[in-house]
Each structure stands twice: as structure tokens, then as C-alpha cells.
Write a structure and sequence with these properties.
This protein has 7 helices and no strands. The protein has helices at residues 3-18, 23-35, 38-55, 57-68, 74-85, 91-97, 99-103. The model has no long low-confidence stretch (mean pLDDT 82).
Length: 104
């Protein structure tokens, strides 16, 4: 990211933190903004795919098959794989930040 891009991201982050939105409202707003921009959706999908393949290719292929096949266990399998991608030190805060909890 360019220096100007980093400055815009920092300014947006500061503005977002000062807002009166709850965590759930902020998540929903962010989700809507992502869904409205196909380029962002594509970039997120690409990055997730590359990261899970690099992390555990065999498991990633299984998860992709579940997602493509619309299997009822796909979301759980993907969530588990993504959580395993996180650094070990992040495990304590994982439950508190889980988008799945915000989405219910």
C-alpha cells in the first residue's frame, strides 16, 4: 500500500474508532460496504484462498469442495481453518471478536 493509502487508512481507522457505532453495527456496516464492491469481494476471496492453500493445501481443498458443494458443514469447516491461520497468541481474543457471533 502506498504512503498516501496508509494515511487514508489510518484516518479512516481513527474516524471509525470515534464513531458511536456498536461493534455489531460497525461489523454490519463493513460487511455491507464489502458486499457492495465486487473488487473488494474478489480481493478478499483471492487472499483467503491463497492463504488457506499456503497454510494447509489438503485441508483447504476439502473446505473448498464443501463450500462449492453447498455442504451444511462448509461454514464451520472454513471458520475452523481460518481460525487456525491466526497467530497462536491471538487465541484468547478470538471468541470475543468472532464475526459469527456478531452475525447472529
Amino acid at each position: 500500500m502506498s504512503e498516501a493509502g496508509m494515511e487514508r487508512a489510518d484516518a479512516a481507522h481513527r474516524s471509525f474508532r470515534r464513531s458511536t457505532l456498536t461493534k455489531e453495527q460497525a461489523f454490519r456496516l463493513w460487511r455491507c460496504a464489502i458486499k457492495d464492491d465486487d473488487r473488494l469481494v474478489d480481493e478478499m476471496i483471492l487472499q483467503i484462498y491463497e492463504n488457506i492453500i499456503a497454510f494447509d493445501c489438503e485441508r483447504a481443498e476439502c473446505v473448498v469442495e464443501l463450500v462449492v458443494g453447498r455442504d451444511v458443514t462448509a461454514a464451520c469447516a472454513l471458520r475452523s481453518l481460518l481460525q487456525d491461520l491466526r497467530p497462536v497468541g491471538d487465541a484468547r481474543s478470538r471468541a470475543a471478536r468472532s464475526p459469527a457471533r456478531l452475525n447472529s
